[in-house]
Amino acid sequence: MRTGFATVVGRPNVGKSSLVNRMVGTKVSITSARPNTTRHSVRGIIHRSDAQIVLVDTPGLHRPRTALGERLVGTADASLADVDVAVAVLDATAAIGPGDRMVLERALSSVGPAGAGLLVAVNKVDRARSAEVLERLVTASAAIDELGGAPSAEYFPVSALTGEGVGPLVDEIAARVPEGPAYYPEEMVTDTPEALRVAELVREQLLRRARDELPHSIACRVTEWDWPHIRCEIVVERESQKGIVIGRGGEVLKEVGIAVRTQLPPGAYLDLHVRVEKHWQQRPDALDRFGY
Fold it and tell me: Which residue blocks in 80-187 are alpha helix, DSSP H?
């Protein structure tokens, strides 16, 4: 039996969460087309007859402009500490730039100069031409050589959307984690607390309906859990944003509540409340309260 941790890192919006969900085989992380959707380290657990792999989904590595951004980058960096495998995710539809090189550098440094635990996944191959995918793979390899080299590193063209190439990637992760006992029971696919999961599901639905700068201004947390009653607080930074989140006649909140309840056990009652807290992204006390 092999068991270990594999941290998945990359720039914002390269498809890390979608890839983690695909590898686990069920949804453990929220997803959206918005950058920086993931704000917490989320663990997804793969159970195999020969291995148990604990995947760690992380916030996107980027140059932070807010106190929240700094904490998200810190969360990603902390998730790279003491891991067995680092999976650096790149986007097949975009040229490799300084941000990707930073990702490769941090992933390489977390597993040692030989790169024994370094894997590179070029995601979204379903949306890229073959020549583009090849160019990303070659450029990534050259970038790692410039960083000191990683003879043991391997490269995988994958699609989180279709599943193409994901099987071989999981096989390689399983081969690289050490021998040891399982950490989690077989029925467990994530250790995310249920209250945090519900808050994230609410935020996911809001992100799908939000526009402009609003996605970054939304924070959600469960403030009351008395099953089947769940009270979730939605925080924005301006009064104008509050109206957008509520919608005309409460239409947006109603749609969000319906969509989230379909992902909860039958009978759940979701009570959504919106309030304004100015500049919460820049305030350490607010970030502490929201669990960032």
Answer: 98-111, 130-146, 166-176
Q: Which CATH class is domain 2-176?
A: alpha beta
- pTM of the predicted structure, to 2 decimals: 0.94
Handedness of CA 117, 143, 9, 173 (dihedral sign): negative
Tokens of 42: 């989320």
- CATH number assigned to the domain covering 194-289: 3.30.300.20
CA distances to 73, 170, 209 from 281, rounded to whole Å, are 14, 36, 20
Domain locations in the chain? 2-176, 194-289
Instruction: Mark out the alpha helices in 25-150 (DSSP H runs).
Output: 67-79, 98-111, 130-146
Q: Helices (H), strands (E): how many in the chain?
A: 10, 9
Q: pLDDT by residue (tens digit) across 4-60?
A: 999 999 999 999 999 999 999 999 999 998 888 999 999 999 999 999 999 999 999
